[in-house]
Design goal:
- Helices cover 81% and strands 0% of the residues.
- By secondary structure, the protein is mainly alpha-helical.
- The termini are far apart.
Length: 500
């Protein structure tokens, strides 16, 4: 937790430096007049404070930190649980470990509809509190017993909460954030997850089994305490007819007086949306599907989620030790494993600095292209090795690093930021819930079938397929996806209608 606070404390300095590099050193003259006018207007209108938005977004995203712990926990603990000194009493076999590893994705599919219901019924804040309680139960059960059944029961609660992480948290962060920092705060999602991976790998390889559990169990407890003081989403308060409370919450989050015209403008916008949709029948998936604009937005987001899930991340993290060993790269296993999330954290910081400057669409398209080239290079290297050739050992290592940077920097976070910005808050919970369920189910299928498919068609062909998927993702992004940066839902819907 101290590490995260340190990162946030020095974030503004880092972003200022990176912004100067990007805007002055690399692109000193390339500026469009419209963007310059927009920047001057934003600077002139900017007032109030944003630190409470940052704090609330960071608090909500600590659930992603715990999710990173839970996802990364299996890798360093597998050797312990399968050893003769296993805390389960007897060593777990490969089948048992596969169920322990994959169950979190399977149970997440159940968590998504659960939290998609509660997020509109009891609110974003209370739903995040329930998620943190489930995450606490996961670690407590593992502390009390490490049998296979207990581990899977613990992963059941962890999976349920994971189902809400990519559904509720982006929604909450989007609804508390003002437009000019919405993308940056949305990028916390992947940053905190990758920090969780890194910290868990570091602790898991060098600390005792129970010491790790006793440390991580306190993180969701801290989340619960901090969320008790966090504000509810103003959009949800308007949805429930609590307009005065919504105005007060906006005032606190923006650091402005409740009578300020900025607050009143935001509140009026949400109230107008609410009045519009109150006059319509109850919004259901059938209503969403019958609306041509919403349906087109759903097509795009399903495509993005599918392309993201099949972009090769799971294969890279699974196959990297074998790939590097076959290439002749000899690196300490623990150091090698720790380097992956470290690279992804760096890429997340770079992404956070670029997302509001260059927009969602250019960042997503460019990372898809870079990821496709990297995986294509890796697949070609593997094919050459299979044919008896000896390519330089640094090529696969560099390809893996480049891909991980592209995945963490754009492929992974951008679809979730885009889907949270694209839809009206009246249907946001429903459609994001459906997209995230789809993503979790794809993850589960990959874990279950990956080895069989690799054995059937060969690892190099699998990576060629992933490379093609990334290039297809760039094509879909450039041709069909509208830019959502700094736009209202109406403006995005107008873009969708034009493209449709």
């Amino acid at each position: 937790m101290c590490f995260i606070v340190c990162l946030v404390r020095h974030y503004s300095t880092f972003m200022l430096f990176l912004n100067n590099v990007l805007s002055r050193k690399i692109f000193p003259r390339v500026k469009f007049c419209r963007n310059m006018a927009s920047e001057k207007r934003n600077v002139g209108e900017r007032k109030g404070t944003t630190y409470k938005q940052w704090l609330a977004a960071l608090t909500a995203n600590t659930t992603l930190l715990t999710y990173g712990f839970q996802s990364g926990w299996v890798a360093p603990m597998t050797s312990i649980l399968q050893s003769e000194e296993s805390p389960a009493g007897t060593p777990l076999n490969d089948t048992e470990m596969s169920w322990v590893a994959s169950s979190i994705s399977l149970f997440a599919c159940l968590g998504v509809p659960l939290f998609a219901y509660t997020v509109d019924k009891i609110g974003r804040k209370k739903t995040i509190l329930i998620m943190a309680v489930f995450q606490t139960l996961c670690w407590i059960i593992n502390i009390l017993s490490s049998s296979t059944a207990s581990l899977i029961i613990g992963r059941f609660f962890g999976g349920l909460s994971s189902g809400g992480c990519y559904n509720v948290v982006p929604m909450y962060v989007r609804e508390i954030s003002q437009d000019d920092i919405r993308g940056i705060l949305g990028s916390f999602l992947i940053l905190l997850q990758n920090i969780g991976f890194l910290v868990m790998f570091a602790m898991g390889f060098y600390m005792d089994y129970y010491v790790v559990l006793y440390i991580v169990v306190w993180i969701p407890v801290i989340t619960i305490v901090m969320m008790l003081f966090a504000p509810e989403s103003p959009a949800f308060l308007v949805k429930k007819g609590l307009n005065d409370e919504a105005a007060s919450t906006l005032s606190v989050l923006r650091g402005l007086d409740v009578d300020d015209k900025v607050i009143q403008k935001e509140l009026d916008y949400m109230k107008n949306e609410e009045e519009t949709y109150k006059s319509l029948p109850t919004v259901s998936f059938l209503n969403i599907w019958q609306n041509k604009t919403w349906r087109h937005g759903c097509y795009l987001n399903i495509a993005l989620v599918t392309l993201r899930a099949n972009s090769g991340n799971f294969a890279i993290l699974t196959f990297t030790p074998a790939i590097l060993a076959a290439s002749g790269v000899t690196v300490n296993r623990e150091l090698q494993t720790l380097s992956f999330p470290a690279v992804m954290i760096l890429a997340s910081f770079i992404s956070m600095s670029c997302v509001e400057k260059f927009g969602r669409k250019p960042l997503l398209a460019s990372t898809f292209i870079v990821g496709g080239i990297a995986l294509g290079t890796l697949a070609t290297t593997m094919l050459i090795q299979q044919q008896g050739g000896a390519p330089p050992v640094w090529i696969p290592a560099l390809a893996i690093i480049i891909y991980l940077c592209s995945y963490a920097g754009g492929i992974s976070p951008m679809p979730y930021i885009i889907m949270a910005e694209m839809f009206n808050f009246q249907i946001r919970a429903k459609v994001i819930g459906a997209f995230v369920t789809h993503a979790w189910f794809l993850s589960f299928l990959q874990i279950v079938t990956f080895t069989a498919i690799t054995n059937l068609i060969g690892a190099h062909n699998v990576f060629y397929c992933y490379a093609v998927t990334n290039i297809l993702g760039a094509f879909v992004t450039l041709i069909f996806l509208p830019e959502t940066k700094g736009k209202t839902v109406e403006e995005i819907e107008m873009d969708l209608n034009k493209r449709r």
